[in-house]
Amino acid sequence: TLEKEGVGRPSTYATIINTIQDRGYVRKISGQLVPTFTAMAVTSLLEKHFPHLVNLSFTAQMEETLDNIATGGEYSVNYLEEFYN
Predict the structure, then answer these.
(1) Rounded to an integer, what is the distance from CA 6 to the centroid of its chain?
(2) pLDDT, tens digit, for every residue of 13-51?
(3) Averaged over 71-83, what is the pLDDT?
(4) For position 61, what pLDDT does the model report?
(5) How far apart are CA 18 and CA 71, in angstroms?
(6) What residues have CB less than 8 Å from 76, skipping those under 6 apart?
(7) C-alpha dist (Å) from residue 23 to 6, 30, 85
(8) Taking the CB of residue 4, how many other CB atoms lie within 10 A of it?
(9) SS3 letters for the chain?
(10) What is the pLDDT of residues 28-37, one digit of tens each?
């Protein structure tokens, strides 16, 4: 799903899974990742207070912009000013 939505890179998926497990957001049960109460609570708060930041299209677009910055196609200060303002 991450790849289909343009979020992350295949090289980062294992790290993402490890991080959410280490932080207690999921538990691995019978080979499946099951969200914890903490995950549900954090997700609910983020969706309520930061809906524009907690969506796949925002994340995919941000990653594309960061790639452009890394290759010199976009200026980082402009992006940061727009993001924070």
Answers:
(1) 11
(2) 888 899 999 999 999 999 999 999 999 999 999 999 999
(3) 89
(4) 85
(5) 28
(6) 69
(7) 24, 19, 30
(8) 7
(9) CHHHHCCCCHHHHHHHHHHHHHCCCEEEECCEEEECHHHHHHHHHHHHHCCCCCCHHHHHHHHHHHHHHHCCCCCHHHHHHHHHC
(10) 999 999 999 9
